[in-house]
Amino acid sequence: MHILLTNDDGPPNPVSSPYISAFIDELRTLNHEVSVVLPSTQRSWIGKAHLLPPSRYTLPGQERPHPNEVISELCTPTYFDPGTGTVHDYPPKGKEYWVLVPGAPLGLFHHKELFPFKRSSTIDLVLSGPNHGRNTTAAFALSSGTLGGALEAAISGVRAIAISFAFFTKTEPEQLVREASAHALRIVEKLYGSWSPPLQSKGSRLSDGRPDPDAAQNPDVFTINVPLVEGVSQNPVKWTWMLDNKWPDGSLYSLASSPPDEHKPPSFKWSPYFGTIWQAVEESPPGNDGKAIKDGQTSISCLKANYEDMYGRGSYSGEFKL
Fold first, then answer.
1. CA proximity to 134, closest of 126, 143, 123, 125
2. Would the pLDDT of 107 be above 90?
3. What whole-number distance in Å separates Cα of residue 190 and Cα of residue 235?
């Protein structure tokens, strides 16, 4: 089996991407062919986005390009040597390498030119992760670049599994990460072995517009959340539903400067408040992904690569009359 691994945390970094190396070490023991395509820098919280180059047009007084816009019209990968930790302009011959891509890496994964020395160019399974942090509950999952990577693969017709590690301290002992990696990969192999081929249904709907029940039973994406706790491989693994929660405080940013006045614009700092998320999990009924992680259990949720719509429910069908 040819497995492509991606993430949204980027190449190895002790702060933002601390799990990728240990996970790949465990993945290599399974004797599959493995290709690695990562964003060249951290792209957390990006969802399923494609980053485009800045606009050619500017407003009077506007800088161009804006300092935050670093995406070029040409997407040129570089190549990371995990043995030396160095980045190269060309893939090193005869050595393992990981492809680093500016922007969203899975927009390119079908191009065999990324892997000129691979035996197989066909991808059987995409693994996205392991994410540095949980991707449980809708509030986290809808912003997740890890889930976004898996959904991008599914939209392209490839089976995909997102993997996230829920941490509870600022640093995790290496043995916890390695146990979680081996545990997650055992789940991956069992899921893949029993996964039916993707259905090529017409929009997953019947002729009358109702959802196709057969397509609904065939997941496009599995999302696995593993708590980084000792003995996790001995704890239960649960099928879960995704908790439908919100960000009731309204903003993921806080005011970073003194109150603005006519001479000074405001500045804002990325500062999400997670208290309401934990409270929603605490108050929720059992069976959801957030509750499983809270209880030290591994969560598996199965998803369709589509927004859930409400067609056919209540009055949401037929003609909309003004």
1. 143
2. no
3. 17
SS (H, E, C) the chain: CEEEEECCCCCCECCCECCHHHHHHHHHCCCCEEEEEEECCCCCCCCCCCCCCCCCCCCCCCCCCCCCCCCCCCCCCEEEECCCCEEECCCCCCCCCEEEECCCHHHHCCCHHHCCCCCCCCCCEEEEEEEECCCCHHHHHCCCHHHHHHHHHHHCCCEEEEEEEECCCCCCCHHHHHHHHHHHHHHHHHHHHCCCCCCCCCCCECCCCCECHHHHCCCCEEEEEEECCCCHHHCCEEECECCCCCCCCCCCEEECCCCCECCECCCEEECCCCHHHHHHHHHCCCCEHHHHHHCCCEEEEEECCCCCCCCCCCCCCCCCCC
Neighbours of 7 (CB within 10 A): 29
> Which of 151, 175, 180, 150 minimizes the C-alpha distance to 162?
150
Q: Which amino acid is at 176?
A: L
Among the residue ranges 92-96, 156-160, 202-206, 243-247, the one predicted with the least confidence is 202-206
Burial of 87 (0-12, 13-18, 19+ CB in 10 A): middle
Residue 201 has pLDDT above 50, yes or no: no
Kindly report the pTM of this predicted structure: 0.89
| Amino acid letter for position 245 | N
Which long-range CB contacts under 8 A does 69-78 form with residues at least 24 apart? 70/102, 71/102, 71/103, 72/102, 75/101, 75/102, 75/103, 75/107, 75/108, 76/102, 77/40, 77/101, 77/108, 77/114, 78/40
Tokens of 181: 């990696």
